[in-house]
Each structure stands twice: as structure tokens, then as C-alpha cells.
Design goal:
Two copies of one chain form a homodimer. The first copy, chain A, is of the alpha/beta class. Chain A is built from 16 helices and 15 strands. Chain A folds into two domains: about 240 residues, 3-Layer(aba) Sandwich (Aldehyde Dehydrogenase, Chain A, domain 1), CATH 3.40.605.10; about 150 residues, 3-Layer(aba) Sandwich (Aldehyde Dehydrogenase, Chain A, domain 2). Chain A is globular, with a radius of gyration of 24 Å. The mean pLDDT of chain A is about 95. Strand 15 of chain A pairs parallel with strand 12 of chain B, so a sheet runs across the interface. Chains A, B: InterPro entries: Ald_DH/histidinol_DH, Ald_DH_C, Ald_DH_N, Aldehyde_DH_dom, G-glutamylP_reductase_CS, Glu-5-SA_DH, GPR_dom. Chains A, B: Belongs to the gamma-glutamyl phosphate reductase family. Chains A, B: It holds the Pfam family Aldedh.
Amino acid sequence: MSTSAVKVIAQQSRLAARQLSSAPESIRNLALIKMAEALESVKQQLLDINTQEIIKARDEGQSDAMIKRLTIDDKTFQYMLSRLKKVAQLPDPLNRILAGHTNPAGLRVYKKSVPLGVIGIIYESRPNVTTDAAGVCIKSGNAVILRGGSEALQTNALLTDAMIEGAVNAGLPQHAIQIIRIPGHEAVGELLKMDGYIDVLIPRGGKDLIKRIAEGTRIPVIKHYDGICHLYIAADANSEQAVGIAINSKCQSVQVCNALESLLVDQQCAEQLLPLLQAAFVANKIELRGCEQTRKLLPNIPPATEEDWHTEYLAPILSVKVVNGIELAIDHINHYGSGHTDGIVTQSLKLAQQFEEQVDSASVMINASTRLSGGGDYGLGSVVGISTDKLHVRGPVGPDELTTYKWVAYGDGHLRA
Amino acid sequence: MSTSAVKVIAQQSRLAARQLSSAPESIRNLALIKMAEALESVKQQLLDINTQEIIKARDEGQSDAMIKRLTIDDKTFQYMLSRLKKVAQLPDPLNRILAGHTNPAGLRVYKKSVPLGVIGIIYESRPNVTTDAAGVCIKSGNAVILRGGSEALQTNALLTDAMIEGAVNAGLPQHAIQIIRIPGHEAVGELLKMDGYIDVLIPRGGKDLIKRIAEGTRIPVIKHYDGICHLYIAADANSEQAVGIAINSKCQSVQVCNALESLLVDQQCAEQLLPLLQAAFVANKIELRGCEQTRKLLPNIPPATEEDWHTEYLAPILSVKVVNGIELAIDHINHYGSGHTDGIVTQSLKLAQQFEEQVDSASVMINASTRLSGGGDYGLGSVVGISTDKLHVRGPVGPDELTTYKWVAYGDGHLRA
């Protein structure tokens, strides 16, 4: 029965987590290398199984975008291996002394980073999440329970089997990495009930999936629902930079969470800039929707409704609003934004600092594309997701963010007076 | 109507939070000093109102313990003021650069600590929480909404009015500190619905209050349900130290969350130690309840049931179990404990380190009383609570823990390639 099977997995992970909490850095890094080696050794088998799943998905009429996400080609495969090896080279996120002192009575107190314990990753089809997530979890000493999309069930299972073999060869426990092989929603439902065994869930996928998980469990969830990212072009912005950043933020890739969705143009430069921006967006096949003032300057575009300001298009559409000053720009961003990534283009240090302080978002970009927000450019090495929550982790979720800490006090018979 | 009144408070706090996010350290510290001065100036009025509430509580037949918690005497009052002044002297929890680098393209990236935003504190009667919590929140640049127990409504309102006056005199916004003056459960229910305005709730009180809040809101909650604290006396423990630490952990104060509730004695030293421990506990009027093996050695004590191992007595009762080795001790603690504070008495560095690594608790004490776990001995200055959660904050909740961070990137037209 699937119910008890998921519980057995959760219990096994909890036991593995305890063993992992004592696993030295050298063993965890060796495991990552051996995981990559074991994957290399099943490469042909993996590509064959992946091809079968691609054919099946095509037969079932899945979209081209879905097929593309599902596919492992040689380049993707090499990238997956390189990420595991790269994580192995990152500094150890564990056993960092975060604070500490010796109190007046001689009690030695320190706060050190330790693994969270058991992490559940629930994701849609991209098989590279299987290896990325397992890599970051093992690096940070956590047991991981994977649950990928049903279209890639066999591919993910084989990836996991190889990684388990590598991890065990390095000396990690058998159940440090597990994957739920039972198809269907029921198994996910069971996973959500495993509070007491699972310390945190990280869902990756569409907003609906994430909402279903966050609202259906008592387990803490690290998540972002969407990325309604803004760029505010201040009155004093360099025009060329403003257009360049706006275009790159929107067009470099439209289907990603740090792509631009709403452009705010200061009233003082709107007349000069909006026609330039329109020409550039049109050349990039982006549909614009505007506020009333925008439409006075660009009469041929349709109106943006209240709903537009709340929408993450993930498509070649952009809402445009003229704002009167930085205060109103920040008001708009804090009201309609999702706290993911928001930027300003300005030459004024004062405006940049006000924007930095008062925009309530995980990432604030000053004269830089919103597309630069993420683990890569922030120097995190490898990430398993992005958080727009404020507690625990905000922004990219890398190995450090999969740790908690404990307070340790070494005494010699110390008592409370 | 109370419903809209709570929403207005929440909205005002959100606006104040934005202003606070730009408030310099000097202003926040000045506010703490002026808050203490303003309290000093209403001292007599405060003691009078507090006396009236004490009389009312007595007339209503409240317990002596409740009356004691409600009472502000001269000593309590001076302590409240001293805590505010002490918080002012702590290092700034804001604008700490937590990580950062300049990426290869010259993008300057840093991660800096910022306020959480709006914090709601829901607590039972102790009026010193009113000043302690407001102090830690203002220090960390957060707007705070207080909601104390109904018995101390007038006392807390006057404390808050004085603190508001002090904070405003220092230049902080009017609504940086607010208190909900509407009596009854309905107002708390409304407060729990204020996600979108309130960033985190910190309930302080009994387990029932905390459960009601955590399970009744979508706002993140920083909490601990209970403190089922353990002490494991290893086979090689120094007897005198073991007895001293056990007695201090249990008896120094029984009604607190870091008091000992279950004592685990290694099989190899049980025969020698249990009679000594019993004599010491009996002298301190502690009732012992034991496992089967304990009762073979101490035949006159009643059995500990399965329920006992799950119980935070907060009373002069202690459950005692004989365990065969450190592995089983850790198993017991991780299964029955609440992840608050657990200790070991041992002379072996190997056992101490295994215990430190594998006990999954916020605080791990080596040869020290469980009563030493807390903000004071850990050097945090002032705290608003304790967390047994693993995400965001674990253990004492001080000013640093009331911050989140944002990623800031300064570019000069930087684009994604």
C-alpha cells in the first residue's frame, strides 16, 4: 500500500539524517564525486530510458515546452555532473561557528550550523532538479526525499539509483537519498502528512502546485509563488542604460521567475523614454499594456487592468505604468510585487539607497537586469530553489540555507545561581 | 467595530515599518532611552493602575501565581527600564553585511540584514513582556503590535502609551509601537487574519494559546510549544557533578521551559547513582516516577507511564529512566523530547561530541544545568521568546533573530548574457 510505503521512506530518511549529522565534510564531498561517477557509468542506460519517456510524453500529446524540459541530452547530462562536482568544492556549510563566547562563569557557549535533517523536494519534470537537489542536500548533510513529475518517473528513478550507489560507496547511509517511485497524487498527499519525519519541504513548479503543498501541510515550506518583478526608471536615469536593462530584464528569457513583468517609468522622463522603450520592445516581439498616462504617450497599446498589475505573465507581455516619483514607485512595487526581484535605474545615490532600503523584496537591483538575481551571480554555487518568504531564507536557496543551528554549551558542573 | 479597528492598526503598522526600514541606528537607540525615560515619568500612575488591576484580579479569584505575574513592584519596574537601556547598548542587528562579492562582470552583490517588518506579539499577563518585546522590536527596526492578557489591559496600555511618547520624541513614526486595546478573543482572531500586513507572530504563554495561534493563521509563527528537557547521566559521569546538575536543572525553578522533566541514567552507574539522586530530589520535595529498571533500584516510587515521557510537568515531578548506553539515550531524547534543551553529564569527549552532534535540539548542554540555556547566558542581551522550530531561529529570539535580509546588487548597466 502506498500510504505505508511513504511512511517507511520518511522513517528511513529520519534515521539516515541522524547518521548524516555526524558525517564528516570529506565523506560528504567524496559522496558528491562518487555520485557523479556513478551517473557517468549509467549514461547510456539513462539516455535510453529518457528517450522512452520522451516518446511516451509525445504520444500523450504533451507540449513542446514540456518535452524540452523533460529531455536529457549530452550537454544537459554533462552539466548535471559538473554541478555535483562544483558543489563538492564549495566550503562546508556545516559546523560553522556563528556566534559564541565564554560567559563570566566560564561556560563555553557556541552556536554552530547543523543540517536541517530531512528535506522533501517536490518538483515538476526537469530531471536536472533530481541531481541538483540531491547534491545540495548531501553537501549540507541532509537526508533528501525526492518526488519528481510523473513524466520523468523512470529517468528520475535511475538518476537516484546511481546517486545512491555513489553515496553509499563513499560511506553515507543507504537512505540518505530516496525517491518516491509511486505514481499519482496520493503519494504526495502522504508525504505532506510526514511532519515529525520531514523538517522542510521545497516545492518547485507552477504556482498551483506550490499553493497546494503550502496549504496542505504542517511541515515548514520554503517557496516562492511567483516573480512579479518590476523595474523603475527614475527621472535621472541614463536612457541607454534604462532601455538596455529593461529589454534584458524582459526579453533574455520570458518564462522565468526573475523576468520583468511590470515597468514603471517616472513621469519626468516618460515622454522622452516611452517611445524608445516601445520601439525596443516591439523589435523583441513584446506586447505592451499601459496605464492611462502611458497610453496618452503610446496611444496604440491596450490598457493594463488592475489584474495586469497582479499578473506574472511568464510570456512576451509587459505592463507599463507612469509614476510620479520614487515614493509612488515603491508604493506600487510593495503593493503589487511578489517580493522576488525589483530594480531601479538611476544615477542618484540617494534614490538608489532609498529604493534599496524601502523596497521589501528578496533582491533589489540597482542599474542591473532583474535576470541577474540568482545563486550564480550571487556566488552561491548551486541552489535548489528561491524563496520569497522572509523567514529563514530569502532569495536563492543554496547549501548554507539548508542548515539550521544549535546552541552548544560546554561546562564543568555549571549551575544556575 | 473591532474587526476594522484591528485592520487599521495592522495597516498603520505596515506604513510605520516602511519608515522604520530607513531609521538610523542612532534614532532607534535614542528611542529606547526615551522610552525608558517616558516610563519613568509615569511611574506613579502606572503603579496605581497596576494596583487596581491586581485588586480586580483578586476579586475575580485569580490564582496567587497569576497575581504575582501581573504585579509590577518597584524592583520589576526598575528591571523593565534597565532592559530597555541595555538593549540600546547592543550592537545594531541591522545593515550587517552577511555575505557579498563582486562578480566577474563587476556587479557588486551583498546580502544585508534588514527588519522583518511588522511583528505581532501575543502574550499572557506578565507586563514586562510589553516593554521587553517593544524594546527588542524597536532595536531591530520592526513595527510591533502588542496584545497582552486581559487582566493587565490597562497596565499594558499605559506602558505602551509612554513608550510611544518616547519613541515619537526620538523621531520614530507614531505607529512604530501599537497595542490592541479591544478586550476579548475576537480581536485576536482578527489579528491572525492580518497576513499581508504582519510578517511574523510571536505567541508567548501556555501550550494551548500557542497551538491556537499557530494553527489558526497563515502568518509565520516563531514559537515553542513546550520544553520537555532531558539530562542523560553517562556511565562515566562524575557523581557529584551529576547530582548537582540534575538538582539544579530540576529544582532551581520548576515552572520554566528549560527545567528538567526527564532524567536518563546509564545502566552502568544507575545502581550507584539512583539512591544518591533520590535522596537529593526528596530533600528538594520532587516526586519521582520511574521506569521498570529504576523501580527495581528505587522500589518505593510509582511507575512512569508512556504519557509521563511525553509530559512537561512544570511542577515538582520528574520521570526517571535507566538507559543502556548513549545511543538509546539519544533515541529517547529525539523521540520524546521537544527539541528545547537537553544535556549530558560525562567525562568523555567522545560521548560529549556524539551527544552534541546527534541530539536534535535547540540547546545541548555538556556538564551544565539545563537552566543555563537562554539569552542571558548565551550573550544575546534581551530576548522576546524561545523557538524550538528549526527554520529561521532556534533557541532564544533576540534582536538579530527579528531580522531577515535582502540581496542588493549595484551594477552599471549590467545585463545577463
